[in-house]
């Protein structure tokens, strides 16, 4: 890909931090080579992958799971972001701090998605941001709301709360928040009366 980040120098820390990137749509097979695509991502550290997803409750949207195994998404690649000296307990504490900002009911594909979460977590862990291509479409979407399909605005991911030890299956559903779009598509109407992803 033409948008590669320069090589990471081993700086502070001895524990590697990876960004695991997943495809949300099969169109990424083509769009990836142009530095575009719709991606889900998670931060892998100490053998655990942390990610952020939407749900209807005012509780954390951060969940943890097996690295490179997020159900409902197609794994694309793992990218070394840097190193950390944080212990597993310190990482968990940092995730609990981020939980205030990343509530499940605050998820928005354009302004607060899984890639925004991963960027914040990677900066706190390593001092390095995620590669810009991972969340480029959301930044473009701020300029033109018509670029991202409305149906992708509310990607729902079931999750393990970071304070829970119980292991539940992670699930994914795509759901449109726009009732107008749903009613137009169900009646076969081809007109597009709204491009907003509110």
UniProtKB/TrEMBL annotation:
Coiled coil: none annotated. InterPro entries: PPPDE_dom, PPPDE_sf. GO terms for molecular function: deubiquitinase activity. It comes from Sesamum angustifolium. GO terms for biological process: protein deubiquitination; proteolysis. Residues 175-198 are annotated as: Disordered. The keyword Hydrolase applies. This is DeSI-like protein. Residues 15-152 form the PPPDE domain. Pfam families: Peptidase_C97. PROSITE patterns: PPPDE. Keywords: Hydrolase, Protease. Residues 181-198 have a biased composition (Low complexity). Belongs to the DeSI family.
């Amino acid at each position: 890909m033409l948008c590669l980040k320069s090589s990471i120098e081993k700086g502070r820390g001895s524990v590697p931090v990876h960004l695991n990137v997943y495809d949300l749509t099969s169109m990424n097979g083509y769009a990836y080579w142009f530095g575009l695509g719709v991606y889900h991502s998670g931060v892998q550290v100490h053998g655990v992958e942390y990610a952020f997803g939407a749900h209807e409750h005012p509780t954390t949207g951060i969940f943890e799971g097996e690295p490179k195994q997020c159900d409902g998404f197609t794994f694309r690649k793992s990218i070394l972001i840097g190193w950390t000296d944080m212990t597993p307990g310190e990482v968990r504490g940092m995730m609990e701090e981020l939980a205030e900002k990343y509530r499940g009911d605050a998820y928005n594909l354009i302004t607060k998605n899984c890639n925004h979460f991963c960027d914040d977590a990677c900066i706190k862990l390593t001092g390095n941001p995620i590669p810009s291509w991972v969340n480029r479409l959301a930044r473009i979407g701020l300029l033109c709301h018509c670029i991202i399909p409305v149906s992708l605005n509310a990607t729902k991911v079931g999750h393990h709360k970071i304070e829970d030890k119980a292991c539940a299956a992670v699930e994914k559903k795509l759901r449109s928040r726009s009732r107008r779009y749903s009613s137009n598509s169900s009646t076969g109407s081809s007109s597009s009366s709204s491009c907003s992803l509110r």
